[in-house]
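Hi everyone, sorry if this is the wrong subforum. Our group has a chain we'd like a structural model of before ordering constructs, and none of us has done structure prediction before. Sequence below.
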Amino acid sequence: MDWIQNLLFNDASVAHTVILYAFVIALGVALGKMKFFGISLGVTFVLFVGLIAGHFGFSAEKNILHTGVRADSIHLFHWIASRTEFFLLL
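Answer:
Right subforum, don't worry. Here is the predicted structure as tokens:
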């Protein structure tokens, strides 16, 4: 049972980060579908759930947070997607 505790509460684990993100996103999307006084905030609740999770001490590994998609990759995808020939190849 140590492996479950290590998986859920060890900040250095990649699995911990994936589970934390999945929980925050799933709960935020579920709350976003609910209407309060006739108003639905949608995916804004993902931000609120993330803020609440951070307030209660849940965090991810700092190196994992900074290894996102590089700007070069985004520019390359935008360049490819803007070409009409790209869609003809699909």
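For your construct planning: The chain has a mean pLDDT of 75. The longest helix spans residues 14-32.
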